[in-house]
Design a protein that fits this description.
Elements (H helix, E strand, L loop, with lengths): L2 H16 L1 E3 L7 E12 L14 H12 L5 H6 L6 H9 L12 H7 L1 H20 L1 H7 L6 H6 L1 E2 L5 E2 L1 H11 L7 E3 L15 E9 L2 E12 L3 H20 L2 E15 L3 H8 L8 E4 L14 E4 L14
Parallel strand pairs: 7-8
Antiparallel strand pairs: 1-2, 2-8, 3-4, 5-6, 6-7, 9-10
Helix pairs in contact: 1-11, 2-10, 5-6, 6-7
InterPro entries: Thymidate_synth/dCMP_Mease (IPR045097), Thymidate_synth/dCMP_Mease_dom (IPR023451), Thymidate_synth/dCMP_Mease_sf (IPR036926), Thymidylate_synthase (IPR000398)
Organism: Halalkalibacter kiskunsagensis
Protein name: Thymidylate synthase
């Protein structure tokens, strides 16, 4: 049994057994615990869960989107990545320019009402097309505000200057690998009103030891079924990319979560996943011809040997 799936499934079992039922912003309801940590040895394989299929290309395109400093959905839609669509869609339907059918609480209503779901899908498709092909619309309603890409690559300081936190980390690792300041922060109190979704994975820090690069990332809030498998793989990939740039091996990935929860409409899916036997972890292969991680495209990152169980569908709580 691979260690990555095991620690994840252990967490799921613990939440179901010991979690507290809580209400939440989305109105869905959760089973929640407060405070949890998991460790993944990246030398043992790439921690992409095998007890359900996790779409790796979506993880790659989202991470590259962050690293480009982009905050507009167009790049993701161009790569058939729809994991952020609902946040931009919500921005549009809450605007004065929207004049379609009432989409209030579309996340819950689309699960409960087939007729409404058909209307919702129609409006969502319209939104996606407009972001892809209407520059003016995309500028206003495709942009999610100062989310991860902006904070990672163009942090605005109190001094009025902007700071590239990712570039700083890379340069500092090369200059002073023993530094205890290899840290990126995406949480800015002054920016919260300008973000369609305040950062869930709000900070991460790197650590170099014996030629290996480790990373610890912190999450204030974590959807265990849909979000966490993405987050684990995304930060594992980021660690591989930074290690590549700095000519290091990979070490550990450490996850620290605060409000760690299973949504009430994901419980049956979690139970299905818990019945599955983990399989061997895959590995990843990076294009050795790329000089910088900022030059990487999706095709430069290859997943090797991934043979998971089938996907398990679940609705996103918005």
């Amino acid at each position: 049994m691979n260690q990555a799936d095991q620690v994840y499934l252990d967490l799921c079992q613990y939440i179901l057994a010991h979690g507290t039922k809580k209400e939440d912003r989305t109105g869905t309801g959760t089973i929640s615990i407060f405070g949890h940590q998991m460790r993944f040895n990246l030398q043992e394989g790439f921690p992409l869960l095998t007890t359900k299929r996790v779409p790796f290309k979506l993880i790659v395109s989202e991470l590259l989107w962050f690293l480009k400093g982009d905050t507009n959905l167009r790049y993701l839609l161009q790569h058939n990545n729809h994991i952020w669509d609902e946040w931009g869609f919500q921005k549009w339907i809450e605007s004065d320019e929207y004049n379609g059918p009432d989409m209030t609480n579309f996340g819950l209503r689309s699960q409960q009402d087939e007729q409404f779901n058909a209307e919702y899908q129609e409006q969502l498709n319209l939104y996606q097309e407009k972001v892809l092909h209407d520059d003016e619309f995309a500028t206003v309603y495709g942009d999610l505000g100062n989310v991860y890409g902006k904070q990672w690559r163009s942090w605005e300081g109190a001094d009025g200057k902007t700071y590239d936190q990712i570039l700083y980390i890379i340069e500092e690792i090369k200059r002073n690998p023993d530094s205890r300041r290899l840290l990126c922060n995406a949480w800015s109190a002054s920016e919260l009103e300008n973000q369609q979704l305040p950062p869930c994975h709000y900070a991460f820090q790197f650590y170099v030891n014996n030629g290996k690069l480790s990373c610890m990332f912190n999450m204030r809030s974590n959807d265990v079924f849909l979000g966490l498998p993405f987050n684990i793989a995304s930060y594992a990939l980021l660690t591989h990319l930074i290690a590549y740039e700095c000519k290091l091996e990979v070490g550990e990935l450490i996850y620290t979560g605060a409000d760690v929860h299973i949504y009430s409409n994901h419980v049956e899916q979690i139970k299905t996943q818990l019945q599955r036997e983990p399989r061997n972890l895959p590995t990843i292969k990076l294009n050795p011809e790329r000089d910088s991680i900022f030059d990487f495209e999706i095709e430069d990152i290859e997943l090797v040997g991934y043979h998971p169980h089938g996907a398990i569908k679940a609705a996103v709580a918005v």
